[in-house]
Amino acid sequence: MRGKFFTIVFIVLTTKVDGLPNLYAGQCPLLVPSSMTTKIPSQLGKKRPHFITIAHRGASDSLPEHTLPAYRLALELGADYIEADLVATKDNKLVSIHGIDLNTTTNVALLYPERHRTITLDGKNTSGYFVFDFTLEEVQTLRVKQRIGGRSTFFDFTFSIPTIQDIVNLLHDWNHNIIVKNNSTKRSGIYAEFKNPQYYLQQLNISLVDIFLQEMDRNEYADKMFFNTKNQTKFGCERMNEYQVPPLVIQCFDIETLREMRSKLHSKGMAQPSYVLLANAKQCHLPDFWSRVDKLGFLSGIGPDKKCVISETAGKEFINQAQKLNLAVHPYTSREEIEFVTSQFASAEDELRWLYCSRGITGMFVESLDLGVKIGTRGCEDFQEMQEQKDSTEMKKEGNDKHKHATLSQESCSQHNNKNVTTMKSATWIMIGTCLGLWMSRWFSKIGQSIDMGILKKLSIGKMNSRKSLITFKENMVTLIKVGSIHLKMKVKAKTR
Ligand SMILES: *[C@@H]1O[C@H](CO)[C@@H](O)[C@H](O)[C@H]1NC(C)=O
Ligand SMILES: *[C@@H]1O[C@H](CO)[C@@H](O)[C@H](O)[C@H]1NC(C)=O
Ligand SMILES: *[C@@H]1O[C@H](CO)[C@@H](O)[C@H](O)[C@H]1NC(C)=O
Ligand SMILES: *[C@@H]1O[C@H](CO)[C@@H](O)[C@H](O)[C@H]1NC(C)=O
Ligand SMILES: *[C@@H]1O[C@H](CO)[C@@H](O)[C@H](O)[C@H]1NC(C)=O
Ligand SMILES: *[C@@H]1O[C@H](CO)[C@@H](O)[C@H](O)[C@H]1NC(C)=O
Ligand SMILES: *[C@@H]1O[C@H](CO)[C@@H](O)[C@H](O)[C@H]1NC(C)=O
After folding, report:
1. What PROSITE patterns does this protein's entry cite (predicted)?
2. Which pLDDT does position 395 carry in this prediction?
3. Which of 102, 217, 308, 439 lies at a 20 to 30 A Cα distance from 86?
């Protein structure tokens, strides 16, 4: 009932403002009833809480961001969405990487030193190795590394940059082959962001929206998963006690790009995804911010910098405004390292729990998936603000001491975490991993391919290390084989060209 009510509210809102027929009013609302107005089941069971966990660049606290293994791990850990940042290559293929400069997270400077150049981006001279100077084939020779210091570097330069095709296929496989076999009705989705769309449009005469739609046309699953108008609710509004997960969200800082996407889909008669407008800490406080959002009319949510919602008065007002317009609020970004936690909180957990239970956000971009899932699953029934705050001041002192300690011994710590595998259980895993690696390398060489044994060994050990819960042996094997076959496919493609 409640789900229906929200759907109706949503449809009425979108039709009222924009005059498009219901069919195009978004597949289903992103907004889930807020924690404060709904009883959240306190028990972990079939019921899911009303909180959306978005895997920021994949499970990027464990694996290098925007890689297939990072996305896959995020799904395994319970992400509602995997977040993909989309940019176009020289030959107009969409790949996922956080920005147009490949140097930030890859070995491009080593492989293509001569491609370094300076462009004028948003009025500033910006130097780098820009993705639009590289063909897809060239981009796929690069390998990705961990961005954030202090995190595991164990998988650095192992995985490549995925295409949008790879990501859609991964999601389809997860939703339709893997999770189904586990008797789960939960489906996950893609939260896609267009990066620097105005630069592409004005400097390169390329519409990222057009390329995205071409890519979706080319993909055998995309239409059914994202745009099918006939049975859109089959996938799009998966319901578990009113909890809804639309399969595709389009997010952007640029309003014009969202408009372009919406009108192009409309003219093709395709179903609309949910749209989320991103806002940095400056934009969200502009005096005309909410009137522009209101005028836009078709948004499902806002993705603000968490600074926009944390401050006492302005933050509260921000949430109030969003609720007035029936918009979901999904701030960015929750990271576990203490230097990324807002200073009044003792930990990322305190911060996220307060944002959800006290401030009333409806989801969050997180890099530690188990934290996001934990906060959502726990719900807010036992949240007591005063006590919590008292606790958090006490814990803060402790936390600071811990932090100092952690910084001091960071190097030895990370080495310990990554490589010191001493327990019996770990040893068993290494054996299994190595045997499988050997078997796979034989299998690969049989069909004329060689595969890096090191990669396989690292994968099977590292998976087990990265997050101890949830990841089963079988899942591990599936990931291994998948990564192996992606490498294989790439090699075969390169050879046949
Ligand atoms: C599959 O189901 C089992 C048992 O219910 C559960 O422990 C496991 O976490 C599930 N796997 C995934 C990937 O959801
Ligand atoms: C490329 O990135 C590395 C850090 O990853 C940095 O040290 C280096 O200066 C960058 N090179 C250029 C040419 O920007
Ligand atoms: C960018 O670089 C060019 C050439 O080096 C220079 O003429 C121009 O003033 C620079 N622009 C800015 C905004 O710094
Ligand atoms: C899924 O359900 C089927 C039929 O009820 C059962 O045989 C199977 O063991 C279940 N699988 C899991 C992973 O729970
Ligand atoms: C921009 O691209 C379109 C086709 O995508 C083409 O028709 C147009 O001529 C191009 N404009 C310029 C200035 O190159
Ligand atoms: C979607 O609808 C088509 C025909 O309208 C049907 O063949 C297909 O099985 C449906 N898909 C799902 C997932 O129900
Ligand atoms: C591994 O960690 C244990 C403590 O858990 C330590 O005693 C041992 O020396 C470490 N081994 C190596 C090789 O670092």
Report:
1. GP_PDE
2. 52
3. 308
Neighbours of 60 (CB within 10 A): 28
Ligand nearest to the CA of 106: 2
Does 172 participate in catalysis according to the annotation? no
Task: Kindly report, residue by residue over 435-461, the tens digit of the pLDDT.
Answer: 565 556 555 444 333 334 344 444 443
State the chain's mean pLDDT as an integer.
75
- The residue annotated as part of the active site, out of 56, 176, 403, 487, is 56
Q: Which residue, 146, 129, 25, 27, is CA-closest to 87?
A: 129
Q: β-strands 328-329, 363-366: how paired? A: unpaired
CATH architecture type of domain 26-94+156-408 = Alpha-Beta Barrel (3.20)
Nearest ligand 2 atom, CA 145:
5
pTM of the model: 0.74
Residue 39: CB atoms within 10 Å: 10
**pLDDT score recorded for residue 376:** 87
Looking at residue 283, the DSSP 8-state letter turns out to be: G
- 98 in catalytic set: yes
- Per-domain residue ranges of the chain: 26-94+156-408, 421-496
Residue with tokens 């919590």: 388
178, 179, 183, 470, best to mutate for ligand 4 pocket (most atoms within 8 Å of CB)? 183
Ligand 2 atom index nearest CA of 128: 14
